[in-house]
């Protein structure tokens, strides 16, 4: 025996040949790893090729409708109010978004108080604040007391107006008489107060 060769004690060597498991454990591990690779490759192939659904694209009408809605919901529109008796006081503007809130200024989707110049008011309104259908009510508050004043028999003594230039027969017009679609970007809505 040479000095470099390891020595095995009698206690460690029983004199028996190694069993089948000890002789083949490397081959079994290699087979198990190969099985994992085959199953994993099959799953990946199935996910990427066999279960692949071809993409469906929207038709031209759907694309145009989306762009129309996007254009209508962004940008600004101008509310132009004409017919003020003078430039005294301010113009009170309320934009309503539903029939249930129409006529209640505290529930308006957009409200503003604007100065009057040459009997007119130009008010830019952000379209993203407006729903698809709106109704606008305005009045010229000449004495700036915050309310539409009436005369002795109950008729308004200050000028007022609504979208679609609607007028009520025995009171303010209804939602259905004043409702208009949300304007497009750079659109103008004209309202005459009288």
Question: What features would you describe in this structure?
Answer:
This protein is of the alpha+beta class and 194 residues long. The protein has 2 domains: 20-51; 76-192, Immunoglobulin-like (Sandwich), CATH 2.60.40. It is 25% helix and 24% strand. Strands 2, 3, 5, 6 and 7 form a 5-stranded antiparallel β-sheet that branches. A 3-stranded mixed β-sheet has the order 4-1-8, with no helix packed on it. The termini are far apart. 17% of the residues are buried.
What is the secondary structure topology, with strand pairs?
Elements (H helix, E strand, L loop, with lengths): L19 H31 L9 H14 L2 E7 L7 E7 L13 E6 L4 E7 L6 E9 L18 E3 L12 H4 L1 E2 L6 E5 L2
Parallel strand pairs: 1-8
Antiparallel strand pairs: 1-4, 2-3, 2-5, 5-6, 5-7
Defining key terms:
194 residues; alpha+beta; Immunoglobulin-like; five-stranded antiparallel sheet; three-stranded mixed sheet; 3 helices; 8 strands
How would you summarize what this structure contains?
The protein has helices at 20-50, 60-73, 175-178, and strands at 76-82, 90-96, 110-115, 120-126, 133-141, 160-162, 180-181, 188-192. It is an alpha+beta fold.
């Amino acid at each position: 025996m040479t000095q470099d060769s390891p020595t095995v004690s009698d206690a460690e060597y029983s004199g028996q040949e190694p069993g089948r498991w000890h002789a083949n454990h490397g081959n079994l591990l290699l087979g198990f790893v190969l099985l994992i690779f085959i199953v994993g490759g099959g799953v990946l192939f199935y996910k990427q090729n066999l279960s692949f659904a071809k993409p469906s694209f929207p038709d031209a009408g759907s694309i145009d409708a989306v762009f129309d809605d996007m254009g209508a919901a962004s940008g600004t529109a101008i509310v132009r109010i004409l017919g003020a008796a003078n430039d005294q006081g301010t113009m009170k503007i309320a934009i309503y978004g539903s029939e249930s809130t129409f006529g209640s200024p505290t529930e308006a989707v957009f409200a503003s108080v604007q100065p009057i110049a040459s009997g007119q008011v130009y008010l830019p309104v952000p379209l993203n604040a407006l729903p698809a259908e709106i109704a606008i009510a305005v009045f010229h508050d000449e004495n700036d007391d915050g309310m539409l004043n009436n005369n002795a028999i109950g008729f308004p003594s200050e000028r007022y107006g609504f979208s679609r230039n609607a007028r009520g027969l025995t009171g303010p017009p209804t939602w259905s008489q004043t409702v208009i679609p949300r304007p497009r970007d750079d659109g103008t809505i004209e309202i005459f107060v009288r």
